[in-house]
Write a structure and sequence with these properties.
Blueprint: H1 20-24, E1 32-34, H2 45-50, E2 56-60, H3 66-74, E3 79-84, H4 87-97, E4 105-109, H5 115-118, E5 124-130, H6 148-157, E6 158-168, H7 171-182, E7 187-193, H8 196-199, H9 211-218, E8 224-230
Parallel strand pairs: 1-4, 2-3, 2-5, 3-4, 5-6
Antiparallel strand pairs: 6-8, 7-8
């Protein structure tokens, strides 16, 4: 699964695009960072960006922002960073965020593969990763973010004992994730379910539903979930 590392993971990677929404996102430059802009804040998110000492959480793949909006509102004491790579969807979410009652967040139009360039070693307390693109065709499986190279980078940026929360609707991706988790020793698997809402309805991961999750549940799809805790020594 991890024979070849995507060049997006490398230091010399450059974003290239001509999408008009890249410029439109500058309307929200007070809280939106595009492409490499986020990487200038590596190691300085609490001290210079949020200007307060607090738990720092990252959501990779914020999508339509349902979790980001709800979690930020319910946890104003947490410094929250949302991230997605889609242009038009990012602009739509930025518009919603501009009306949010709390400003305890930043939004990145960037790639999750570059987490180690956006955050310093042990800078994050939590990572959320909900309903990523499953790339279901076998020839596209290599595009799945959840592989050993990414897990190594998540481990690097999370604090000792930091948490990684994951949900997916896709059976194949869920099995893939399970295999990746079983073949690493960077994280301890603290929770795992192949049917979250029936097996663990009181769990934190069952305390909210994203837009996609509501659709999947309405279709009778079981939600697969994992909670990983970093084994990094203090």
């Amino acid at each position: 699964m991890d024979k070849k590392v995507d060049k997006t993971f490398t230091e010399d990677f450059e974003y290239t695009h001509k999408n008009p929404y890249h410029d439109k996102l500058s309307e929200y430059e007070g809280f939106v960072l595009r492409d490499h802009e986020a990487e200038a804040n590596r190691g300085k998110w609490n001290s210079e960006v949020f200007k307060r000492d607090a738990e720092l959480a990252l959501e990779i793949g914020s999508g339509y922002g349902h979790f980001m909006l709800e979690f930020s509102e319910n946890n104003p004491e947490i410094n929250y960073v949302g991230l997605d790579y889609r242009f038009k969807r990012s602009y739509a979410l930025a518009k919603k965020l501009s009306r949010h009652p709390h400003q305890n967040f930043r939004y990145l139009r960037a790639k999750g593969e570059r987490v180690e360039y956006m955050f310093d070693d042990s800078e994050l307390d939590k990572i959320f990763y909900f309903f990523p693109d499953p790339w279901p065709k076998a020839r596209h499986n290599k595009k799945r973010l959840f592989q050993k190279p990414f897990l190594e980078r998540a481990y690097k940026v999370l604090k000792p004992g930091g948490y990684f929360f994951i949900k997916t609707d896709h059976d194949g991706y869920g099995e893939w994730m399970k295999e990746v988790i079983e073949n690493q020793d960077l994280f301890t698997l603290e929770f795992s379910s192949t049917d979250l809402w029936n097996e663990a309805p009181e769990h934190f991961l069952a305390s909210f539903k994203t837009k996609f999750e509501k659709i999947f549940l309405g279709q009778g799809v079981n939600i697969k979930a994992f909670v990983l805790r970093s084994n990094k020594p203090s």
